[in-house]
Every structure is written in structure tokens, then in C-alpha cells.
Amino acid sequence: MEIYHLCRVAVAPLRNEPSDRSEIVSQLLFGDRVKLLEKTEKWCKVITYHDDYEGWMDYKQLKLITEDEFLAEQNYTYLTPVQLDNTLIASDGTKYYLTPGSTLPNYKDGFCEIGEEKFRVTSLPFVPRKENFRKEVEGNAKFFENTSYLWGGRTFFGIDCSGFVQTVYKLNGLQLKRDASQQAEQGETVDFLESAVLGDLAFFDNEEGKITHVGLMLNNHQIIHSAGKVHIDPIDGQGIYSAELGRYTHKLRIIKRFF
């Protein structure tokens, strides 16, 4: 079985089962790398390179590449910027509309390539720098304000809580796992809410003690998170308080720092 592939469409659903009716557990963005685990006539089970996440997808949404092309890290450094218009123009004149943080494989001189396919990049891509984290993270997070919540979503057309913080971190050169429960196992613990700073992540649990939600701290009393939509709420030692609902909506479990 030929293993190494890239996502060749703007957004591809990653499903729990090999069926169009199956729930979407995540999404692939243009240029994301995956390895094939299984394959049927239409469907394939993949594991993502960037966060080791498994799911099923339509094989037509992938492009076969060589192992050397797959592992050439220097070819996957450029991302689409934090703006609405990130258009690619294929050689046949058709267009792809990419979300911020999409990878532009083999980018050079205004073009990117997937295998033998070449695309003109109309925006100005960038290479994220960790050293700019504190300068850029707030603006990157607020770009997604009012984006609707979508289970499994990773774009400004719909995003879930862990996909939101994962995308914001990617735009700043830091890689997180996909789910909130996985992300909570990364980073260093911040002992007190009062010590939280811009860019820290706060995690919240349910009555069974399972991590079910995550948001990004703007300071030690405000958090931006995806719940209904991406928005800012106050937070204290008890958790997130929704002024709109007049009650606490998420119970604080732990705060982590990743930089």
C-alpha cells in the first residue's frame, strides 16, 4: 500500500467511520500530511503527521507523494496568513479558498506545489516564529471571534474549542495535540490562576473529571474560547462565567503554559 499523502483540497472532513454519514472528528487543511493505515475503493483510514490523529476520509481528497517528499520538513514551513483572502489559483484557473494556518508545500516565489500540481499563491505567506508568540497570539486568537462552534472544526467557517487553540498555536509556531484531553497532558502547570498570562491555556472538566473544554487566557481574568461561537468571557477560580447566561458554564481544572 502506498502510504504517504498530502491533503489536496482546502478542507477535508476526517470521519469516525468510512461513511459520509459518520460524524466528523476533525478536519484536514490544504497541505496537511497523512499516512495511510487502511484503504477501500473510496475510503481510507489515515493518521495525521502533525498531531497523530486517526480518522477516515475520501481518498480522492489526497495526493500521493514519496517518502522523501513527505519527510522534507523544510518544504512545509510556510503558512497562509491571518486574513480572509487566502486564494490559490491552480494551473487550470480554478481557485481554492484556504483558511488561515493552512500549509503551503514547497512554497517558492509565489507558488506552492503538491506533487506535479502547481498553484499560484495570491496572499503573502509567512513562517511562524515562536519568539513572536506574546506579540502575535492575542491578535491571532481574536481574528476568529464570532466563528461558529463546530465539532471537529479547524477553520473560520466553524471551529471547536481544541481546534481553535491548536490553530492559534500553529500560527505562532507551536504544535498542540488535537483534543483538549490530549492538550492538557502537554505543557507545564501554572499553579495559580493569578499567575496566568496571555497565551496560557485553561482546561475544564465535567462531573466525571474528564477534560472536555479548553480556552486561551488573555490575562488572569479573561479567556477566549469556542463555545457556541468564539468569544471572550470572564474567568475566576471556579471557572468560566457567562454574563449572557448568568451562570458558570465550565469548571476550571488546570492551567498550562507551553512557551
TrEMBL record:
<dbReference type="InterPro" id="IPR051202">
    <property type="entry name" value="Peptidase_C40"/>
</dbReference>
<keyword id="KW-0788">Thiol protease</keyword>
<dbReference type="InterPro" id="IPR000064">
    <property type="entry name" value="NLP_P60_dom"/>
</dbReference>
<feature type="domain" description="NlpC/P60">
    <location>
        <begin position="130"/>
        <end position="259"/>
    </location>
</feature>
<dbReference type="GO" id="GO:0006508">
    <property type="term" value="P:proteolysis"/>
</dbReference>
<comment type="similarity">
    <text>Belongs to the peptidase C40 family.</text>
</comment>
<keyword id="KW-0378">Hydrolase</keyword>
<keyword id="KW-0645">Protease</keyword>
<dbReference type="InterPro" id="IPR038765">
    <property type="entry name" value="Papain-like_cys_pep_sf"/>
</dbReference>
<dbReference type="Pfam" id="PF00877">
    <property type="entry name" value="NLPC_P60"/>
</dbReference>
<dbReference type="InterPro" id="IPR041382">
    <property type="entry name" value="SH3_16"/>
</dbReference>
<protein>
    <submittedName>
        <fullName>SH3 domain-containing protein</fullName>
    </submittedName>
</protein>
<dbReference type="Pfam" id="PF18348">
    <property type="entry name" value="SH3_16"/>
</dbReference>
<dbReference type="GO" id="GO:0008234">
    <property type="term" value="F:cysteine-type peptidase activity"/>
</dbReference>
